[in-house]
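Colleagues,

For the teaching module next term, I've prepared a clean inverse folding example: a structure given as tokens, and then the sequence designed for it. I'd like students to try predicting residues themselves before seeing the answer, so please don't circulate the second half yet.
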């Protein structure tokens, strides 16, 4: 099966109201949904016509009296059988088209939501459970499929049955038709009003279900911590409490549905009984035929069962719409970052921070009027104590968040005025912890440049000194690395991340503790490789292990979001300031015994 085409989602997002959201995807396939509606309506019309065919057959049999041989029953019989065949053909065609249309639309919905979700800044993902976000996207796809399918097979057919019954009953007794209209409208108003009143219960259940999904994923992803701290029972109790809240919300939502069903059954049973008694009394009075009684009986019970499906579908739809509304409220928020269309053109790699201001919500500002110029091709190390602003600085270069004042320029271009993807295409990053997909090693390295050939991937791996250990694995480059790369050691994952950066070959390179997970021998090998990689590129490196910055052009020491030292590493060591103190501390080690008397 061919992979679905990835739709482009406007930066302003998808429609925020559930019904408008669903209609958006109907409009994307008007001929498919229109054809499905036509087939379902045609099948439902045939279903009503079948009942009329039965009336004609009964009347023909009744009018024959005792002369059965002379009864003209063959035309009504063949009409009745023919309508059954045509009805089934329409239903099967509707099922085939509905399968293709609904499934394809649900694929588009999930892909579009994922694409829009990934446009949020990183702080958004820090505020929401990753598992809950994933569950919400899956839940919306399921809810949309339920609604589209329910509309086609549970809502439209009963409505057509009702309209067809009204038309047919006008041929029997116009008063019956008017009574049916009035009664059904009254029941519809009661059930709809009752369903709307319960929408809050359905919304609370959807929100709590998404929260429990996020809690489960969070616990499973931290299973090592749970085991290490003997917290299995504690986590189970905590999860039981959250699931208990979900169960309470589910019971309230479910019981509300049962009340709606009970109300509907009472109303429709009264209607069916009343119509049947009316038809029998009319037959006794000689105003209608036996076939008319059969017709009224069949249509009444068809409407009874159809309207039960309709009522249940409408009440279920309120649940599904509640789930969609809850997800759209979370995911379809306006993006915190604008994404202009112009692409970044980068020739040299000059980086300039011009009096930037930035702070996280409800916290002290990280930068307040910070300025730093990094000429193209310069290799700059960023050091400082935890909380000095190092990680925030490199995140701002990648525009994972926007500055709140000032601007960041790359080759003189404000990064807020170019597309995010074009900016990040010019930047290669080796993070402190390399995140890998549960795919093959070949695919994970090729992630740096998807169009790269196998030989280019192998060459990048050789530069990162990981080719030999990869080929020693049973399946070599085809080896699956497991979720987040758990099948590999920390050092091996880091080497793959460095190979990925080699392959990307971007003019700007960001190293965030790029050798932190390596042993001493591996670090020396990687350092040699990095020394080759950084030639002719602008490099910004954050490192606690200061020896990795010894050959850099420049060291910038940060404290509380301010530059306290700036210069070549050998000069900063000679000055005897903060950098020299950090260097001396690492050189002497942290494990010296205390002097006597201290």
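(Answer key — instructors only)
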């Amino acid at each position: 099966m061919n992979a679905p085409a990835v739709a482009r989602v406007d930066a302003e997002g998808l429609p925020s109201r559930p019904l408008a959201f669903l209609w958006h995807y109907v409009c994307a396939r008007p001929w498919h949904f229109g054809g499905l509606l036509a087939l379902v309506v045609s099948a439902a019309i045939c279903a009503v016509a079948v009942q009329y065919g039965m009336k004609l057959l009964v009347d023909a049999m009744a009018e024959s009296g005792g002369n059965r041989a002379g009864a003209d029953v063959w035309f009504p019989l063949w009409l009745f059988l023919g309508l059954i065949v045509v009805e089934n053909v329409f239903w099967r065609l509707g099922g085939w088209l509905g399968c293709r249309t609904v499934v394809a639309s649900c694929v588009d919905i999930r892909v579009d939501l994922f694409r829009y979700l990934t446009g949020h800044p990183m702080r958004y993902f820090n505020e929401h459970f990753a598992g809950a976000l994933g569950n919400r996207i899956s839940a919306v796809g399921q809810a949309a499929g339920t609604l589209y399918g329910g509309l086609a097979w549970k809502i439209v057919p009963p409505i057509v049955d009702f309209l067809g019954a009204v038309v047919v009953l006008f041929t029997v007794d116009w008063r019956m038709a008017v009574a049916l209209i009035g009664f059904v409208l009254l029941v519809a108003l009661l059930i709809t009003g009752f369903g709307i009143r319960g929408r809050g219960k359905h919304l609370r259940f959807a929100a709590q279900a998404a929260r429990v999904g996020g809690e489960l994923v969070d616990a499973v992803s931290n299973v090592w911590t749970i085991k290490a701290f003997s917290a299995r029972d504690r986590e189970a109790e905590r999860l039981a409490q959250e699931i208990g809240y979900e169960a309470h919300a589910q019971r309230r939502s479910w019981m509300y549905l049962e009340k709606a069903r009970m109300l509907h059954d009472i109303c429709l049973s009264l209607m069916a009984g009343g119509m049947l008694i009316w038809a029998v009394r009319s037959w006794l009075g000689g105003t209608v035929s036996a076939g008319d009684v059969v017709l009224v009986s069949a249509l009444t019970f068809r409407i009874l069962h159809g309207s039960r499906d309709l009522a249940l579908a409408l009440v279920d739809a309120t649940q599904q719409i509640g789930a969609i509304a809850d997800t759209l409220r979370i995911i379809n928020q306006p993006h915190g970052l604008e994404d202009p269309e112009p692409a970044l053109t980068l020739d040299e790699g000059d980086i300039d921070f011009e009096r930037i201001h930035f702070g996280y919500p409800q916290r002290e500002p990280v930068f307040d009027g910070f300025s730093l110029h990094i000429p193209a091709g310069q290799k700059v190390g960023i050091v400082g104590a935890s909380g000095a602003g190092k990680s925030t600085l490199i995140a701002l270069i990648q525009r994972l968040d926007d500055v709140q004042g000032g601007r960041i320029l790359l080759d003189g271009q404000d990064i807020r005025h170019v597309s995010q993807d074009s900016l990040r295409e010019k930047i290669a990053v080796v993070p402190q912890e390399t995140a890998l997909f549960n795919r093959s090693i070949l695919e994970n390295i090729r992630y740096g440049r998807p169009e790269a050939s196998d030989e280019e991937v192998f060459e990048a791996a050789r530069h990162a000194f990981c080719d030999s250990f990869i080929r020693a694995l049973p399946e070599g480059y085809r080896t699956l690395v497991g979720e987040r790369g758990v099948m590999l050691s920390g050092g091996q994952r880091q080497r793959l991340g460095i190979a990925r950066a080699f392959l990307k070959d971007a003019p700007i390179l960001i190293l965030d503790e790029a050798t932190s997970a390596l042993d001493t021998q591996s670090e020396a090998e990687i350092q040699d490789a990095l020394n080759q990689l950084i030639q002719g590129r602008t490099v910004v490196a954050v490192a606690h292990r200061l020896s990795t910055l010894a050959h850099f052009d420049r060291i910038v020491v940060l404290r509380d979001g301010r530059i306290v030292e700036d210069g070549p590493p050998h000069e900063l060591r000679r000055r005897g300031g903060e950098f020299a103190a950090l260097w001396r501390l690492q050189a002497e080690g942290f494990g010296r015994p205390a002097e006597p008397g201290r």
